[in-house]
Backbone:
């Protein structure tokens, strides 16, 4: 039970301290890996499932919550990501009128987003370290970038091609 | 024309609309945002184009998933607190249910050799798509920094590099990295903006 509560708190804190559906990833990654509750492989799996699920970007954490704490873990994670966005109502009905057009606000959002991207790359490198930097893996990574960059190939097709490549090569 | 609070909408109707959008939008945020805009601005005419852009702008500085923030603002405007709550639930529940279903199906076959081989291929592909995502996040930020001037561009590039290096080298808590970068950028922008932009 305390395990589940801790999971709920980790997910809630990460969503409160970041913005967008992937901004919480580096925080969750650090918190769960340091406790030994999740592995890099599970992060990659959760991200892949999140990519093929419908809905907004950011539902990958629900998949991760399932890996860590089963169905209760997924349900608690769902509640944890549903609450922070409601704080936007405070912004709309007060704060934003005063701070919204201040240059420091734009600066803050930009700095936060840049750091998220930077830390995100470090997390991805960690996942790749676990998987191994062998030629096959690097080829699949580059192939996914090439297919994704065309913007014409749906994400689930990219992942399906990678899965078939995995079955053929590993 | 400002439509104000008069034209109230049933919160359950909102729940249903978001549920349908949530379950049918594959491909992440951009697809969901497009469907929300089409429904609220073009079909139902609940919001003007300006309202929509302003709300979306505010959601950029709100915590958590931005699109959930957006539907909660729209829900509040059309049906107050029940509208906001049911809007968030509506967008989340069907799509989260599908996510849980996929995860539990996957968890039951996770150790089957064929699945293990398939996932060994999917993991590097996920890394590739993640790198692409990081690139698409950074590009508009650097572009807007460049339009602000040289000093802003330098600050943005430094923040990107320093946060990456700190995250890779030191055991620093990630929230500290994110918020320090935000604070530095806020101060820099505050100090630089009046000098870089000629008064209008």
Residues:
């Amino acid at each position: 039970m305390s395990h589940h509560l801790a999971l709920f708190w980790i997910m809630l804190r990460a969503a409160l301290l970041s913005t967008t559906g992937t901004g919480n990833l580096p925080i969750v990654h650090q918190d769960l890996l340091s406790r030994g509750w999740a592995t890099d492989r599970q992060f990659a799996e959760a991200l892949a499932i999140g990519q093929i699920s419908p809905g907004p970007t950011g539902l990958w954490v629900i998949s991760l919550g399932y890996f860590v704490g089963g169905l209760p873990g997924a349900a608690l994670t769902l509640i944890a990501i549903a609450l922070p966005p409601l704080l936007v109502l405070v912004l709309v009905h007060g704060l934003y009128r005063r701070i919204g057009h201040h240059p420091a606000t734009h600066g803050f959002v930009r700095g936060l987003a840049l750091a998220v991207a930077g830390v995100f790359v470090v997390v991805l490198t960690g996942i790749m370290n676990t998987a191994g930097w062998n030629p096959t893996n690097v080829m699949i990574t580059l192939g996914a970038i090439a297919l994704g960059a065309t913007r014409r190939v749906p994400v689930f097709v990219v992942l399906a091609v990678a899965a078939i490549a995995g079955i053929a090569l590993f | 024309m400002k439509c104000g609070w008069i034209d109230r909408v049933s919160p359950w109707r909102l729940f249903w609309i978001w549920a349908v959008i949530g379950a049918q939008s594959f491909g992440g945020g951009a697809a969901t945002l497009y469907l929300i805009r089409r429904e609220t601005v073009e079909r139902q005419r609940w919001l003007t184009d300006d309202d929509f852009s302003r709300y979306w702008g505010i959601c950029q500085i709100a915590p958590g998933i931005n699109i959930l923030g957006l539907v909660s603002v729209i829900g509040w405007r059309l049906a107050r607190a029940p509208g906001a709550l049911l809007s968030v639930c509506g967008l989340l529940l069907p799509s989260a249910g599908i996510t849980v279903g996929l995860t539990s199906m996957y968890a039951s076959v996770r150790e089957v050799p064929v699945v293990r081989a398939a996932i060994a291929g999917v993991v590097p592909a996920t890394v590739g798509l993640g790198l692409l995502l990081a690139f698409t996040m950074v590009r508009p930020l650097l572009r807007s920094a460049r339009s602000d001037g040289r000093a802003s561009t330098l600050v943005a590039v430094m923040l990107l590099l320093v946060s990456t290096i700190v995250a890779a080298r030191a055991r620093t808590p990630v929230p500290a990295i994110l918020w320090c970068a935000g604070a530095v950028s806020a101060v820099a922008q505050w100090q630089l903006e009046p000098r870089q932009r000629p008064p209008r």
Notes: Residues 69 and 164 of chain B are 28 Å apart (CA to CA). The first helix of chain B runs from residue 11 to 24.
